[in-house]
Amino acid sequence: MAKSMKNPPAYGVTSVDHALQLAVILQVEGSLTVSEAARRIGVARSSAHRLLSTLVYRDFAVQNDDRSYGAGPVLEIAAQAQSNVSVIRAAALDPLRTLVDTLDETANLTIRTGRTVRFIASVECSQALRVGNREGMVFPAHQVTGGLVMLAALSDEELAALYAPAPADTSEERPDMTKLRADLRAVRHSGVALNLERSERGVVAVGRGVTDSGGDTVAAVSVSMPSVRYAPERVKGIVAALGLAAERISAAL
Questions:
Q1: At a CB cut-off of 8 Å and minimum separation 6, what does 197 contact?
Q2: How confident is the model at residue 136 (pLDDT cuts 50, 70, 90)?
Q3: How far is 166 from 182, CA to CA, in rounded Å?
Q4: Per-residue pLDDT at 1
Q5: One-character DSSP codes across 75-129
Q6: pTM of the full predicted structure?
Q7: Handedness of CA 227, 230, 235, 237 (dihedral sign)
Q8: Do 250 and 212 touch, CB atoms closer than 8 A?
């Protein structure tokens, strides 16, 4: 059982801890002056000034016209991103449950961040043999249904720019770009991605995009099933149900 009490690290770095405290204060409480920062974390005014200057340099803070300091772009992006995820997830839960009631297969919602996708909602079906809950899991975008849907929404130039940089993680699998472009052309043509055991043996998934009010693809809704229950003649009904779910989620956004 995990402990409920948080203990400070044995080898904590005081300056790092102070900087993180200030970042949290800026994000949660708003702007503060150098003197207020010094008082809040118990350091000299000169130390507080150095800490805030470093936060500004790294875009965690900005200096206002009145020389106080406020939350910077990094903290604002993080807050906005979390807010967006919560809104999309809330909009999707009822349509996902309806999708499961209709098809009796597991339904998922994914979002893309760079070259990866994250499952932010998953509703399991009632069948004994079923695809399990994937919520919170992260996969390479090119390997999963939702990732293919969202990558297909990019232009060829945006796709090339996305995969041009070398991965920071040397274990990251690089896609075959020629094959990926061909797969994405098929997704753009049909509006649907079909994953036949691409990401996991014994699992088949079908997905389509969810758009916001501006028409941008912000997520993907999909249905996953054991490959033994997949048959090509099921696809038409699955796609129709996915379309209704995607429309409901988009309307709620």
A1: 203, 204, 227
A2: confident
A3: 22
A4: 41
A5: HHHHHHHHHHHHHHHHHHHHHHHHHHHHH-SEEEEEEEETTEEEEEEEE--S-SS
A6: 0.69
A7: negative
A8: yes
Q: Residue 124 is encoded by which pair of tokens?
A: 């399991």
Give phi and psi for 202, each to the nearest 5. 85, 5
Q: What is the pLDDT of residues 80-90, one digit of tens each?
A: 666 688 889 99
Q: Which two tokens stand for residue 222?
A: 């999909």
User: H or E segment at 67?
Assistant: none
- Helices 177-190 & 156-163 angle (0-180, nearest 10): 140
Write the DSSP symbol of residue 32.
Answer: B
Q: Where are the alpha helices (DSSP H) in the chain?
A: 14-29, 34-41, 45-57, 73-103, 145-152, 156-163, 177-190, 235-252
Token pair recorded at residue 207: 């997905």
Q: Are 70 and 28 in contact (CB under 8 A)?
A: no
- For the chain, domains (ranges, CATH) are 14-71 (1.10.10.10), 83-165+174-252 (3.30.450.40)
For residue 137, the number of C-alpha atoms closer than 13 Å in the C-beta half-sphere is: 14
Q: Which residues of 52-86 are buried (b: 16+ CB within 10 A; e: fewer)?
A: beebeeeebbbbeeeebbbbbeebeeeeeeeeebe
